[in-house]
């Protein structure tokens, strides 16, 4: 359990109050906490492991069964680890797929370090043809690094989060970013209220998992990127 959650959950339990959660790596309706911190009664989240799987699946489909040599850029929290786990689960069953290198980029360093990180990854791994930014906010900065390395049109980015109009624009206009997996940001809030009302009414929690969306060139053709970004920018990935 995150050290930031221990005290509040313990206090809620002492007060005979049920705690529910929002966002975790892997929802699991088979257990009492539904994959959230121990002591919580369920919550609301997309499966970040599944988002990672879909990112890897998109790369393998986009390569038409050819070699996929990838880099994973993330930062070291449970949510980034869940996405990386999903990517690895696909690659472990794909003889043509390899994760050549990984890099941790903390949220505060994304604007200044992402470009250089990807530039170095490409120079050190000549066969690298995909990178998986844990968030597309990393991806748009990292894309500049690919250009600096002379790999524009050779290296592709499949990202998640759907909060950067830059990455969504790349996905709409080009094949540079085949997809930007994400979910409706307000939906965990609506879903969480439902879970909280169930807890207050002493009703079993509902399915904790919320749907994942698949923004790509075909379904972004007529979308308003400004509207999508405004909705998504209300959400910040936590560091714990």
Q: Which helices and strands appear, and what pairs or packs with what?
A:
Blueprint: H1 3-14, E1 21-22, E2 43-44, H2 48-62, E3 68-74, H3 78-91, E4 97-104, H4 110-124, E5 130-133, H5 136-148, E6 156-160, H6 165-173, E7 179-181, H7 186-200, H8 225-232
Parallel strand pairs: 1-2, 3-4, 3-5, 5-6, 6-7
Care to describe what's here?
It is built from eight helices and seven strands. It has a domain at 48-181: Rossmann fold (3-Layer(aba) Sandwich). It has helices spanning 3-14, 48-62, 78-91, 110-124, 136-148, 165-173, 186-200, 225-232, and strands at residues 21-22, 43-44, 68-74, 97-104, 130-133, 156-160, 179-181. By secondary structure, it is an alpha/beta fold. The chain has a five-stranded parallel beta sheet, sandwiched between helices. α2 (48-62) crosses α3 and α4 crosses α5 (136-148). The radius of gyration is 19 Å and the shape is elongated.
Cα Rg: 19 Å
Alpha carbon gap, first and last residue:
10 Å
Mean pLDDT: 77
Instruction: Supply the helix-strand structural class.
Output: alpha/beta
Strand percentage lies at 5-15%
Q: For the largest sheet, list the strands in their spatial order.
A: 4-3-5-6-7
Q: Which class of the domain at 48-181 in CATH terms? A: Alpha Beta
CATH superfamily of the domain at 48-181: Response regulator
Q: The biggest beta sheet, please?
A: 5 strands, parallel
Could you give the order of the helices and strands?
A: HEEHEHEHEHEHEHH
Report the strand count: 7
């Amino acid at each position: 359990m995150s050290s930031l959650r221990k005290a509040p959950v313990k206090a809620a339990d002492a007060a005979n109050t049920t705690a529910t959660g929002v966002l975790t790596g892997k929802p699991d309706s088979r257990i009492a906490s539904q994959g959230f911190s121990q002591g919580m009664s369920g919550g609301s989240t997309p499966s970040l492991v599944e988002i990672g799987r879909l990112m890897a699946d998109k790369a393998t489909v986009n390569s038409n069964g050819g070699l996929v040599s990838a880099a994973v850029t993330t930062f070291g929290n449970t949510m980034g680890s869940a996405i990386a786990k999903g990517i690895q689960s696909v690659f472990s069953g794909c003889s043509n797929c390899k994760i050549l290198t990984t890099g941790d980029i903390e949220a505060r360093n994304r604007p200044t370090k992402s470009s250089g990180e990807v530039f170095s990854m490409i120079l050190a791994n000549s066969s690298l043809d995909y990178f998986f930014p844990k968030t597309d906010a990393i991806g748009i900065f990292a894309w500049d690094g690919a250009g600096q390395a002379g790999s524009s049109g050779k290296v592709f980015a499949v990202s998640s989060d759907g909060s950067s109009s830059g990455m969504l624009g790349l996905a709409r206009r080009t094949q540079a970013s085949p997809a930007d997996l994400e979910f409706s940001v307000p939906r965990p809030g609506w879903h969480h209220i439902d879970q909280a009302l169930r807890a207050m009414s002493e009703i079993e929690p509902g399915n904790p998992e919320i749907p994942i969306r698949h923004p790509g060139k075909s379904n972004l053709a007529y979308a308003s990127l400004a509207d999508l970004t405004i909705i998504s920018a209300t959400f910040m990935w936590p560091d714990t």
